[in-house]
Design brief:
Number of domains: 2
Shape: elongated
CATH class of the largest domain: Alpha Beta
Number of strands: 16
Number of helices: 10
Radius of gyration: 22 Å
Largest sheet: 6 strands, parallel
């Protein structure tokens, strides 16, 4: 069971004892996954409830709004990805100006010891907490000795010789480097959100598409991508291609995310979808006519179909 509270007073008194990790976990990349899995293992070994404590909005939205990063995952998507790591409960705490003013000692006592009844806490090596980020892992360990919990730090995960981080992941996605982003995530980068009405250009002048309104903020670089499309009510996924961009051929002014399903779409149009981005095919560009664009889309579809055929062949040849 997940918890979502607007203040510390709303956290139930019987919430614990627990093994806890604390963080924003935006993207839930391999570094986050290592820490989350460590907490889940420790909780099972010590008969504790495993808890991931995260915040909404991002703390920088409150203490330094101009520095707040764009989100890789919506809070709903983040919770789902965290739970997949074996975590029993995800505690979503509203980050408020009042919370930001708690000293490290007050945070450790009020949130961890009293509210979450923490017995074991796992944090990243660069973890900071409390007013003006004055606390670190060593301070938390010292506080825990008096408050009844022990503290462990998760090791850094390296990919390509560099630490995995949400900042690095944001940069890769923003550049359209989906294959590299997948190495940091252990899965493809994805966007979730409702399907919204478009302007009818695709169905009338090129190909019919599903138009996604993403719940998160970091978008892939403008261009055409090989994607997989998932939606509720169906198992598995559908192969697809997706255009992210302004549709310059039609003088578009607003960035859109338009997905074309390979093969016929069975059943009614879904209300919401998740798009997994596998690789970039090309940059978005202006074409001299709708007919020229249709011809290019046919080429894009063939590239995507060849890509999926190779994936299927590789899958069939695996022992």
């Amino acid at each position: 069971m997940n918890g979502s509270w607007k203040s510390l007073h709303e956290i139930p008194d019987d919430f614990g004892p627990t093994a806890v990790t604390i963080g924003n976990f935006d993207g839930v990349h391999l570094g986050h996954q290592r820490i989350l899995q460590s907490v889940a293992r420790a909780a099972r070994a010590r008969s504790l409830c495993s808890v991931a404590l995260t915040f909404d909005p991002h703390p920088l939205k409150i203490v330094a709004p101009s520095l707040a990063p764009k989100t890789l995952t919506s809070i709903r998507q983040r919770v789902d990805l965290i739970r997949r790591q074996g975590i029993d409960r995800v505690a979503i705490l509203a980050f408020t100006p009042e919370l930001s003013q708690l000293s490290p000692a007050e945070f450790a006592e009020t949130v961890l010891a009293r509210k979450l009844v923490a017995r074991h806490v796992v944090v990243g090596a660069d973890f900071r907490f409390g007013r003006k980020q004055a606390g670190d892992a060593e301070m938390l360990r010292s506080l825990g000795e008096h408050l009844g919990f022990d503290v462990a730090t998760g090791g850094t995960v390296l990919v390509g010789g560099e630490p995995v981080s949400s900042t690095r992941l944001r940069d890769l996605v923003a550049q359209g480097r989906m294959v590299e982003a997948r190495r940091l995530l252990g899965r493809e980068f994805s966007l979730q959100g409702p399907i919204v009405s478009g302007e009818g250009i695709g169905s009338k002048r090129t190909v019919p598409t599903l138009n996604l309104e993403p719940e998160s903020q970091v978008l892939p670089a403008d261009g055409v991508y090989v994607t997989v499309t998932r939606h509720s009510g169906q198992t598995g996924h559908r192969e697809s291609i997706t255009n992210v961009g302004l549709r310059p051929t039609f003088e578009g002014r607003h960035r859109t995310i338009e997905t074309f399903l390979l093969g016929e779409m069975a059943g009614p149009t879904p209300n919401a979808i998740e798009l997994g981005f596998l690789r970039k095919i090309r940059d978005e560009r202006r074409f001299p006519s709708a007919q020229s664009l249709r011809e290019q889309i046919s080429v894009d579809i063939e590239i995507a179909e060849r890509y999926f055929r190779r994936l299927h062949a590789l899958s069939e040849n695996r022992p």
